Fold this sequence. Notes:
Elements: H1 2-5, H2 10-34, H3 38-46, H4 48-81, H5 85-108, H6 112-139, H7 143-148, H8 161-166, H9 168-171, H10 175-187, H11 190-203, H12 213-218
Amino acid sequence: AAAAFGYVITWAFFYGVWTKAVIQYLGMKLFILTGESPSHALKRVLGGWFVVFLAVMFVSVTPFWFVSLGTLSAQVVINALGLPVGLQTPLFLAILAVTLAIIVFSAYLRKALAVLEGVQSAIMIIMLVFFWIAVGVATRPDWFSFFAYMFIPILPPGYEPWVKQVAPDIAATPVMWFILPALGALGAGAHEYIGYSATLDEKGWGIPGSPKWKELRRK
């Protein structure tokens, strides 16, 4: 989105990140203190149909997210290593297969969560380092413009000139149609909030750590 609209879209990232943080904090605090998961709270407030709608949306888009994010993560490392094009796809598939094998084996040992957290932390650290190198060395951003547009929401007047040349199909799309999916990706979805509550359940923090937790959950 930033490449398509320039610095004028910075506010969307700022508010998107903080909205996600506040929602997650409140949802997980509710779960730890009361044992009520965010999905159950949504059902109680908005009705079961809304939870079913979110579940259907989650199931339908998850494969696309895994393919997109997995390919992106692999390309960051592959391009940084300067590997030949012919080795990129086999290496990516090999890394994916090894990772899945480790997760399955750790699940058999009932240590899947700990191993998964370690793998994800390592991946995120590697991605963070390479992305910051790319930002600082390759793009050399105008930090004044970045912070100048951070707090005041402004609708971009249009796409950057390069978009019209390289991707005319995107340039023909209304601006808001492109911004909304970008914000949706940034703010994440209901599957993350439900997943985090399952993580807290596994860790046994708060009410889920009570010896009466199973009885409370049935009620």
